[in-house]
Automatic annotation (TrEMBL):
This is Integral membrane protein. It comes from the Bacteria. It comes from Jonesia denitrificans (strain ATCC 14870 / DSM 20603 / BCRC 15368 / CIP 55.134 / JCM 11481 / NBRC 15587 / NCTC 10816 / Prevot 55134) (Listeria denitrificans). Keywords: Membrane, Transmembrane, Transmembrane helix. The lineage of its organism: Bacteria, Bacillati, Actinomycetota, Actinomycetes, Micrococcales. InterPro entries: BaxI_1-like.
Length: 276
């Protein structure tokens, strides 16, 4: 999986676990009928009553829907943009604080068993502070680069969503394995490059400058795009499994993590392209 929350959460796995199925059975009589063999529906009269009852909607059963995920993701993006705009105008130098707080809250949210709307919202605020501040510095160095990065992020999101919905790209074990290997390799490369720059062995962008930097940047953007596709698939699995509506917050958080990464990679790639 692309995000720790998706990979660590049973509800976004390939099959709904027994607790999720049992909860769905309690909420929706028709679902209960399909699981009667597992949980002991009693007699023909009970089954007949279940089938004759009105069909329960996702709102009635409290299950996650695509609309839930879209609304939560849109809300988190709005919070991020507002906090980012405020930081850009008032105190862009606070980007480092936002980066640290965002990292801590990201890890906390990623490994929580139950999603926390408050912590996820605070994560969006912290990431807004980070992105707002660092974007201001990039914009000062390269006029118009922020608009280009935002446009690129939206474009990649739309294209990947289209490819996933059309079925042209499928999340297979081979696809996921390649993504995992690529992300681990990219992480190790980034850590090594950062150490070499900090210790003065390399200057500027380090190994991310010049032609190699462009190749690495494009590779990173490709990994982020693949990560988005896996995120979409995880959400689809969650909806198909009928997970509780509260997990829409977790799904939105997972997508936000990938979008922030994608934006930063595009910002860095554009800076390399426009640098001297």
């Amino acid at each position: 999986m692309s995000n720790p929350y998706f990979s660590n959460s049973a509800v976004f796995g390939g099959k709904a676990d027994k607790d999720v199925q049992r909860t769905n059975a309690q909420m929706d009589p028709r679902f209960a009928a399909t699981t009667s063999a597992q949980y002991g529906a009693t007699d023909a009269a009970s089954l007949d009553s279940m089938y004759n009852s009105p069909a329960a909607t996702t709102a009635d059963t409290g299950r996650m829907t695509y609309d839930d995920v879209i609304m939560k993701t849109g809300g988190m993006l709005a919070v991020l943009v507002l906090s980012g705009a405020a930081t850009w105008i008032v105190a862009p130098q606070l980007f480092f604080v936002g980066a640290i707080v965002g990292l801590v809250l990201g890890l906390v949210n990623a490994f929580k068993k139950e999603p926390s709307p408050v912590l996820i919202t605070l994560y969006s605020i912290a990431q807004g502070v980070f992105l707002g501040g660092i974007s201001k510095f990039y914009e000062a160095a390269y006029n118009g680069i922020v608009f280009q990065a935002v446009l690129g992020t939206v474009s990649v999101f739309v294209v990947t969503l289209f490819l996933y919905r059309s079925g042209k790209v499928r999340v297979t074990p081979k696809f996921t394995r390649f993504l995992l290997i690529g992300m681990v390799g990219y992480l190790l490369f980034s850590i090594l490059n950062l150490i070499l720059v900090w210790t003065g062995v390399l200057d500027g962008w380090g190994m991310r400058g010049g032609g190699l930097g462009l190749i690495i940047g494009l590779f990173a953007v490709g990994l982020a795009a693949m990560s988005l596709i896996v995120d979409f698939d995880s959400v689809a699995v969650g909806v198909r499994n009928g997970v509780p509506a509260k997990y829409a917050w977790a799904a939105a958080f997972g997508i936000m993590v990938t979008l922030v990464w994608l934006y930063l990679e595009l910002l860095r790639l554009l800076a390399i392209l426009r640098g001297d």
